[in-house]
């Protein structure tokens, strides 16, 4: 599979500062995810947890191209998407601790992060379930004459669900301002891409719906950022929906339950050479844009941010059991 | 949460109309009053709606707001959820409840769940309309009554207009609900006609309605079975048994107060439900009556439901499978007989 | 829309006798459907009824390429499919009358014709609902090592359902012996092809699943028969699934309930010039393969066959009401 | 229709195993005994099954018979229907009942319906297995108990193995059934262990089982709630109340005889159901007990179900939403109290 990834150079390069910021954000997410592993082993976090270690460039690159008015529909592997979108580690971690201060007041957990203010619409654990919702958000913008982008992130496995087919056709048919970002990490749980799809060129297939579609190197955050920027510009220009396949790889198992028996160690090792963080670090070092001191500072800042988030989550109260049935229906009822 | 004081009785009539015309008038009014409202579904536009409910609305409001969709139930219902999250007030039409199964994942796992799952951040002001019921010889893939399933889902409000007044008046308060509301239209009612209320906005979507007062037995029905219950009540009257007929109107949340209050007086209940008996809404009503009025019951709660078969095409078989007035009469008399 | 249809000549021509037989079968179906209209107006037939008048070439052409061991999964517009597959008018008409002698003992009606002996698996009124079933029938043949073809007929509207996407991928991924025949009559009820699909080249889209796919003139029974023969040969040769788009047109409304307000009369008239029956009649006349006497004989034979079927349906008994709950579960229970 | 004489009690144990191992042994045995049997679903092969039920079977039977599918619930369930029509005996695994909604159209409109709709011509010998239930902090899209919906569908047989013996023994008779059978495995049971029957083929799929005899109240449970009911029975015994615990085992068709027979003796019933209360299977059981044993009941039928909320992630909230032994004890005592 791994050989199928065809890295593409981005056409334009963001500024040095931007690239440093992208690196720092990837580092931030990587360290956060590593902390989640520890917290899971000590049972502070429970349930299903899906990490994006190795895939940080997709979340960071995509979110870097969006404005605060844009909308995001994510997956259940969304810690990185949520953080890159601007959610605080505190609210995200508290949610995974099942605390009242969590973004979803402890009701959602790792797979169901939401932030209405940031227009981050989850956090959906039904594979493909977010696709029609993203189409609807874009439809609302179209009907209300708002020039906003809805970014819909989903995986190569979701591409096989009927929801993808129906949503892609609706978006193209109605010329909606939605950008489909497919995180192709070459596996759906233990099923390799070639066992999910007869035709594995996902961008080509997306194009057959009458959408502009292309592939970018999901292990190169600059390439992803560039692709996402082009996608957003394209949509803001009223050119309708588009599809970007981001070829990436998860270094860790699918979830904390996964023994990861279906991949060759060699394959995983091969992909580690494409790790988005060391790659960009080296480039920035060569460009003299990054010093060891900078890196050390980043690590220190991130370590502190994480420590604060963990402490806050630990200290946070639980939602009272009396609140269990709150939010099943809305509390404030207004005229339409 | 309705737009005016809630009142189960329809307002005084000024004119008469068909159920279909009442639904159309309600959609037209909502689209006129609120430009966030739009109608979306298969063939709602150029075709005029598979049951002609939206006939003429495309010409009036244009293709953006009377939006024909491809055959993609999951996607256009999910798009309705997204559009609601995006600030609009979508009315999504699914041709029949049978096809709604293709969208059930979106309805349960997204529409009904996201408010709670997001800790109260995201509500979904979506209205979904669909046809339900049998009686037109459409056979097993077009005739089932599955609204009871939807009434099982926390986070949804389920409406079943049985009268022209409710068909006319329930849509606006449904659109006023910040959460998802499903409206089930029994296919046999579209051509029925009745009085239109002067002020449709006075129709509530909270309570059941006593359609006929009585003392000896409570007959509970909704949607397509209300007429059956009323016919049975006439026949029972002729046999000296006074039946109270209650129209549920709202299948979720159920109006226990009205149901239990009636049974406390009549001491007997017959539930008429077009769904398959086992696991139908009638079971939940029976269970609640027993939980809340056990010591007031003079006889077991009776249920008259559809036979547990995929609905057959042949008229004589279909009619035999559906709840008939005679079955309701027999059930009521048996309760009394066993009692007396 | 109509101009979008690109007629294609078949590569090989069936024998004269075969072409005469194809014509006669189309005529038989046309007359049957015309009779159904009358029987519907006199309320002998009720419920939803969908006629294939104008589309006879697709059903006749496809079935002409199948052997008795092959399987067929049809639509709710399947009178022609059922008759062309070999079901008798008697059993089909009795079914529409709701009689015990109907193929489904009156339980199915017009939309649910079945014949286990002919491996005709319906008669499905959930648009797209037959597609996964056809994939499964083909899977059974693959696992049991049987060299049979499963022909799956569906419409342009069904192509938009998620079931098509999932079924096409499964068939191609598993290399299954299933032929997808898409009856593209340019409308899904009142919705024109261009309002159902952003990309209306259905064969191209089917090809994107990794299947061989092409288009044939669905108004030319010889072209359809040739395409179906090639599809069947391809599948029997173990080449895996294939997809054939048959461009056709229905001359009548979608169903007996349809006021048909969404099509230009001119469009309908334009397509009438492609009526498959007069076209082939003329060719065969020119070739001297068909005389007026032959035609008159066909009409007479068909008229008699229909008259017998109507009389039999009229005379047939109803299924006793006591049998209502029969066949909800099987009567004969055997070891697996 | 089972392969041997039907008997609700598990056969004498020879060894112990986990529920997961019992399911695996059952699949292995079926695949060995009948080459028409194959397993199909997401990650059943290389991954070993999302809950490790089919671990190792790929190596044993190969990829044709242990068949990984793409994420396409509707298509691979429909393909199971077609394969069954084509002469095979498919076991289709759906990861959880929550995702099964994507395949519900195929299950209801094709699998359950085609036999009747074809006048008896086409039966569908298909087995579908899926996980159900909460308790593992998987939140609102992975934790619901919707088996009650499937028990509403004519033409289906619905099984809920609660013991290792049933997990081991129900598959073979399910495959022997000429019609579709759905098997619901509560996710909390996979790691539970218990005795394996000497001859699994003696397990029937017809009748409920009395798991603990008693005289004062009948506690009816199934799948994941059986343990809750048994714990409650222990606690009730300590308080001098003798509870009979019935394991439904078969959710459709329900074994009225066993249920009614018990309640006729105990005069009280508590139903424990992990589904949302309104419209859950517990409602149907309550309605049937009232219809068939009204005059034997000394108190209303009580229901202990899940709170009507999308299942929350936080452990304390999830546990509060689920039926607990203490709730069952309280309900039973209240019935007696109200009675005495
Ligand atoms: C509808 C549905 N089917 C199955 C699952 C179980 N499941 C969770 S993640 C997953 C794999 C998804 O793969 P992909 O879309 O490629 O995303 P990735 O995990 O690789 O990021 C599966 C099968 C689910 N959550 N929802
Ligand atoms: C899942 C589903 N959605 C909607 C319908 C209602 N319906 C019946 S036929 C039809 C149009 C189908 O169009 P197409 O597939 O092109 O077949 P055609 O009728 O043109 O032969 C629709 C919308 C249905 N029967 N099933
Ligand atoms: Mg993936
Ligand atoms: Mg069509």
The main β sheet of chain B shows up as:
7 strands, mixed
Instruction: Just give the CATH class of the largest domain in chain B.
Output: Alpha Beta
> Regarding CATH, which class of chain A?
Alpha Beta
CATH homologous superfamily classification of the largest domain in chain B: Thiamin diphosphate (ThDP)-binding fold, Pyr/PP domains
CATH topology type of the largest domain in chain B: Rossmann fold
Structure ligands: thiamine diphosphate, magnesium ion
Structure description:
- The complex is a heterotetramer, with two copies of chain A (336 residues) and two copies of chain B (340 residues).
- Chain A has one domain (16-315): 3-Layer(aba) Sandwich (Rossmann fold).
- Chain A contains twelve helices and seven strands.
- Chain A has helices at 16-41, 56-64, 79-85, 89-96, 130-143, 162-173, 193-196, 202-207, 221-236, 265-272, 276-286, 292-315, and strands spanning 71-73, 150-155, 178-184, 187-188, 191-192, 212-217, 242-247.
- Chain A has a five-stranded parallel β-sheet, sandwiched between helices. Chain A has a two-stranded antiparallel ribbon with strand order 4-5.
- The model of chain A is unreliable at 1-10 (pLDDT under 50).
- Chain B folds into two domains: 14-197, Rossmann fold (3-Layer(aba) Sandwich); 209-335, Rossmann fold, CATH 3.40.50.920.
- Helix content of chain B is 36%, strand content 21%.
- The relative contact order of chain B is 0.14.
- Chain B is of the alpha/beta class and 340 residues long.
- Chain A binds chain C through residues 160-166, 169, 172-173, 195-199, 204-205, 208-211, and chain C through 160-166, 169, 172-173, 195-199, 204-205, 208-211.
- One magnesium ion (MG) binds next to strand 4 of chain C.
């Amino acid at each position: 599979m791994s050989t199928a990834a065809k890295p593409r150079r981005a056409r334009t390069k963001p500024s040095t500062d931007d690239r440093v910021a992208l690196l720092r954000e990837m580092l931030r997410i990587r360290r956060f995810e590593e902390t989640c592993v520890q917290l899971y082993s000590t049972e502070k976090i429970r349930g299903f947890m899906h990490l994006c270690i190795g895939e940080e460039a997709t979340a960071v690159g995509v979110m870097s191209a969006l404005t605060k008015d844009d909308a995001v529909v994510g997956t259940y592997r969304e810690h990185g998407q949520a953080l890159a979108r601007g959610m605080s580690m505190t609210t995200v971690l508290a949610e995974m601790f099942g605390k009242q201060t969590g973004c979803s007041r402890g009701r959602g957990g790792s797979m169901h992060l939401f932030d209405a203010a940031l227009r981050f619409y989850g956090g959906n654990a039904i594979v493909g379930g977010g696709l029609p919702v993203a189409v609807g958000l874009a439809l609302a913008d179209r009907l209300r004459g708002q020039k906003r982008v809805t970014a819909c992130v989903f995986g190569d496995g979701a591409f096989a669900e009927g929801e993808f087919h129906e949503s892609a056709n609706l978006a193209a048919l109605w010329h909606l301002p939605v950008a489909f970002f497919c995180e192709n990490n070459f596996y759906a749980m233990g099923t390799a891409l070639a066992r999910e799809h007869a035709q594995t060129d996902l961008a080509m297939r997306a194009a057959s719906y009458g959408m502009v579609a292309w592939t970018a190197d999901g292990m190169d955050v600059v390439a992803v950022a560039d692709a996402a920027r082009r996608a957003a510009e394209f949509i803001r220009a009223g050119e309708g929906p588009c599809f970007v396949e981001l070829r990436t790889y998860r270094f860790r198992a699918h979830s904390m339950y996964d023994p990861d028996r279906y991949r060759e160690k060699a394959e995983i090792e091969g992909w580690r050479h494409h790790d988005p963080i060391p790659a960009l670090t080296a480039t920035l070092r060569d460009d003299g844009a990054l010093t060891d001191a900078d890196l050390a500072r980043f690590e220190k800042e991130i370590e502190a941010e994480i420590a604060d988030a963990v402490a806050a989550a630990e200290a946070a109260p639980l939602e009272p059991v009396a609140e269990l049935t709150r939010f099943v229906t809305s509390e404030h009822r207004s005229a339409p | 949460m309705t737009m005016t004081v809630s009142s189960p009785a329809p307002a005084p009539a000024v004119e008469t109309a068909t159920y279909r015309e009442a639904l159309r008038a309600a959609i037209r009014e909502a689209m006129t009053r609120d430009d966030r409202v739009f109608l979306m579904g298969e063939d709602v536009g150029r075709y005029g709606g598979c049951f002609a409910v939206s006939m003429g609305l495309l010409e009036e409001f244009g293709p953006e707001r009377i939006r024909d969709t491809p055959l993609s139930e999951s996607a256009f219902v999910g798009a309705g959820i997204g559009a609601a999250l995006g600030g609009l007030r979508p009315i999504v039409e699914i041709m029949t409840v049978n096809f709604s199964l293709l969208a059930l994942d979106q309805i349960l796992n997204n529409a009904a769940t996201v408010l709670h799952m997001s800790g109260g951040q995201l509500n979904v002001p979506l209205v979904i309309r669909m046809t339900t019921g049998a009686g037109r010889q459409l056979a097993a893939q077009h005739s089932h009554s599955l609204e009871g399933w939807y009434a099982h889902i926390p986070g949804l409000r389920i409406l079943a207009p049985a009268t022209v007044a409710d068909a006319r008046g329930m849509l606006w308060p449904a659109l006023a609900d910040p959460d998802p509301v499903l409206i089930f239209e029994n296919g046999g009612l579209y051509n029925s006609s009745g009085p239109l209320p002067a002020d449709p906005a006075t129709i509530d979507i909270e309570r059941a309605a006593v359609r006929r007062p009585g003392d000896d037995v409570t007959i509970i029905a909704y949607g397509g079975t209300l007429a059956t219950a009323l016919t049975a009540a006439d026949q029972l009257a002729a046999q000296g048994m006074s039946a109270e007929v209650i129209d549920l109107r709202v299948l979720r949340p159920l109006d226990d107060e009205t149901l239990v209050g009636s049974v406390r007086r009549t001491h007997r209940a017959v539930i008429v439900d077009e769904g398959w008996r086992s696991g139908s809404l009638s079971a939940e009503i029976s269970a609640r009556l027993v939980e809340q009025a056990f010591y007031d019951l003079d006889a077991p709660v009776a249920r008259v439901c559809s036979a547990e078969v995929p609905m057959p095409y042949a008229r004589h078989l279909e009619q035999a499978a559906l709840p008939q007035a005679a079955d309701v009469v027999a059930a009521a008399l048996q309760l009394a007989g066993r009692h007396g």
